Amino acid sequence: MEEARKNAVHLDRSIKKLGGLPKELPNDALQIPDEELAFYYHSSTEHGDDNIWGLLSGVGGNIYEWYDFAVFGLLAPEIGSAFFPESSKKLQLISSFSVYLAAFLMRPAGAILFGEMGDRIVGRRHALIFSILLITIPSILMGCLPTYETWGAFAAFLLIILRMLQGLSVGGQLAGSYVLSIEQSSAKTRGFRGSICDASSVGGFLLASAVTTVTRSVLTEDQVNRWGWRVPFLFSLLLAPLLYATVSRAEESKLWSERIEQKSTVATVPEKEQTPAVVDLFSSPFRRRQLAGMIGVLSAVTSSFYTIFLWTPVYLSELRGVMKEQAADLINFCVVSLYICFLLAAGKLSDKFPHRMDLIRIGLPALIVTAPTMFGVFECESWVGYLLAQLQFCFCLSLIQGSMAAWEVELWMSDPTLSFTGVAIGHNIAATLFGGTMPLVATFLYYVGEDILDSSSDDVVWPRMLPGLYISVLGCISFYCISYVVRHPHDLRGDSKLQEAVKRKMDEAQIEKNEQRHELGDSSCSNTNNYLPPII
């Protein structure tokens, strides 16, 4: 009871600052489901100690996994030629991007697998280690895989299998780094530490872009097509030992460990009735709404991310043919480098706003406008225009993604035994539906635009802007979801009626449970963690 009183002090102080509350609350303010009640309550908790090794393990894991994942997309033309040589150049590129999509189809499965491991079985740290091991082996094998010339169609089949194993791993790694880092963060640093995780993912793309650019610069075009494309895959062998040494020094999330201990002590659910985390996630109407809204918000981010860092170099070099691959990769390298700076600044800035979603709401309208504008500027046939158009787009995207990692984890932090699963499933479904399909969709829209231009006698620009207009549509969906679908713990701030309702119902829940424990004569069941809400 004493701990419940301490937990309510923070809310009491916030309420007093508002000048008091009405004694009677409307019925709709009091009819709050228990799960939503705990969700809002968690906004007032403090538990993180800004552990550096948890952050470094997530950063290292992201760089490594996203390096391996991005290399395939950047080498799509060479891989298409090596494994689909009998197709036309157009079909080779589409076939290569189809294999790229196959990895994304496995990411939701990886989210369920690693979510269960991270939430219910081994914890966040060990789930991260397993995901790193899972991506290392396929990457090495992919660098040694015989091509179509040697093994025929069987080589393409094995390529798809290895790529799917990579997708299974990535399905748990990014979410694990998010959750471990944010749960070890104080409330005032979540946005910045989350942006470091996202920046490290972009760093993986940057490293992949750098290695790919060096490979294409040092080797001749014929050498790259015959065997040079293997070098970036085998380069991952140098990174694996360093990464394992970093992750092994990380501590487990205290929030998760103590929630597991709390649940085992209170024993609210008999052991035989325990259900998988994914079942608990989808069995709740409130959580299903949160998940749907989260996927909607991420639709614009994931599609934009893979467009600018993966498809745009291919668009400028292979499809439009306005520059060579080396030049497109160099511009991409510069854009990615500056984007990392944009991300870190946006993450730091998001911690200054009163609501986590404020900066996201600023960035989404800007993204809606700049997405088609970028493709319009590409028609200027100037390197300066190519660079500035991409930087403008990246700046607007960073305003959204800078606080996205913290936002995703905070949606599920009220129950640490579900947060890994919630973040992983929501993020990876969005990445699969909108990120994994983006190269195919963008390539298809490009050829649709080409057909329109071929059949039109007018010299118009808008058919070239179709991929950007598609992103704009997704941006509108994201803005609607973040404004009217998703709820966030910061919604409690400034809403005096909701604050009072949460405080009253939490007190009632704690009193009722203490009475039950008193009747059972079990004093050991009291909650000793001053930042965990009671299990209700």
From TrEMBL:
Coiled coil: none
Entry-linked InterPro entries: H+-coupled_symporters, MFS_dom, MFS_sugar_transport-like, MFS_trans_sf, Sugar_transporter_CS
Transmembrane parts of this sequence: 93-115, 127-148, 154-180, 291-310, 330-347, 359-378, 384-407, 428-448, 468-486
PROSITE patterns hit by this protein: MFS, SUGAR_TRANSPORT_2
Pfam families: Sugar_tr
Membrane topology qualifier: Multi-pass membrane protein
Keywords, comma-separated and alphabetical: Cell membrane, Membrane, Symport, Transmembrane, Transmembrane helix, Transport
GO annotation, cellular component aspect: plasma membrane
Positions of the Major facilitator superfamily (MFS) profile domain: 54-490
Name recorded for this polypeptide: MFS transporter, MHS family, proline/betaine transporter
GO molecular function: symporter activity
Subcellular localization: Cell membrane
